[in-house]
Amino acid sequence: MTDTRPAQHSATSLEPAPSRQDPFRRGLPLGRWAGIPVSAHWSTLATLALFAYVLADSALPAAEPHRALAAYWIAGSITAGIFLVTLLAHELAHALVARHFGMRVQGITLWMLGGMTSLESEPPSARADACVAAAGPLTSLLVGGISALAAWGVGGAGLVGAALAWLAGVNVLLAVFNLLPGAPLDGGRLLRAVLWRRYRDRERADIAAARAGRGLGVALMVLGFFEVLAGGVAGLWLALVGWIVLSGAAVERSTAGLAALHGVLAGEVMSPVRSPLPDWWSVGQLLRELTAEHAAQPLLVLVDFSGAASGLMTLRDLQRVPAGQRQEVRLRDLSRIRGERLLVVGRDTPLDQLAPRLPAAGGIALVVDESRRPVGVVAAGDLMRAQQLAQLGWHRDRTSDRSAG
Question: Which of 31, 127, 203, 388 falls 20 to 30 Å from 270 in CA-CA distance?
Fold first, then answer.
C-alpha cells in the first residue's frame, strides 16, 4: 500500500485508523534502502512465523515427502524471509515512483498484513497518483513471474522448486488482492486517480474511493464470516483483512477533502493546553497536585526541565500504575506519544499539510510557540470539525473581520 494522506498503503499498504495507536508505528529499524528509512513492526514476526509454519507443515512436505522435519523448517523459514523482502520491494516501488513525481517519502514500515509507504505530500496529479498506486502491484506481479520462471527452470521439483512456486503464487495473489477497487488498497488509489481525472475534483474522487473501500471491507468480512460458519478457519483471516480495509476506508473518508483546509492554520483550530505537567514528577506527586483544570483535559501534556514539550498521556495511563508504585514511576515513563512519534508543529502550520502527518504520530499534533512551549493540541476530531466548517464557507479570520467591521 501507499499512504498518501500522505502515507499510501497496501495490504501491503493499509494505514491505521484514527486511534493511531496504530499497527504502523515505528518498530525495528532495517536501515535505509535507496535512501528511504525502513522499519518492521513487531507483528512482522507473526507473519514470518505463520508462513514458515504453513510451508514447513504442508506446502513443502506435499511437494517432496520423506524429508527430515528440520529441512522443511529451514527451507520454510528462508522462503518466508524472502517473501518479506518481496513485500519490501512492493513498497519500495511505491516510494521510488512517488519520489520521481516530487513527493517526499517519510519511510516504509512492514507489518503483519503487509507494509506501508508513508508520503509527506499529496500526488500532484491524477497521473502521478495512478503511477504510484500501480507500481506496487506491478512489482509483485514481476516478482511472481520471475519466481515462476525460476521454479520452471529447476523443474518445479524438490524443496527449492516448491518454495519458488509458493513465492510465485503468493506474490501474484498479493498483486491481485491489492488491485481490488477500494481505498486504502492500491486498486482504490487507481480508482481515485481515474475518477479524479474524470471529475476534475480530487475531493469527490477521494470520497468515492473511500465508499468503495467501505463496501469492499464489509464484503470481505461477510465472506469471512460465512467461511467460518462453513468450518473454514481461514475465514477468520479474511474477516480480519476485511475489518482493516473497512477501518482504512473510514480514515480515507475522514481525511478526504483536505483542499477545504487550505489556508486554515493549526493555531486556529487547536484545543488550548492550559497546564502542562513536569515529566519528572511521579504519579503520586501528580495525584497530590492534580487540579480540576488538569482533570478536565482529555490529554495531559508533559514538558521537560526547559519547558519544552516532551510527551502526551491520559488519565487512563495513570490508572495502569499500581498504587504501591505511584511514588517511583515518573510521568515521562508513561507517555504514550513521545520521541520521534511526538508531532510538534507551530501555530502557523497549515492544516492541509498537518493532516497527512497525523496517522504516524498517533493521531495527535502538539502545537508549540516559538520557545517550543506547548500551547495546544490538534487531533483528528479538530481536523474533521475544521473541514466541515471550511466546506460551509466559515473561517475564524472571516468572522473576526466581520466583528471588526
Answer: 203
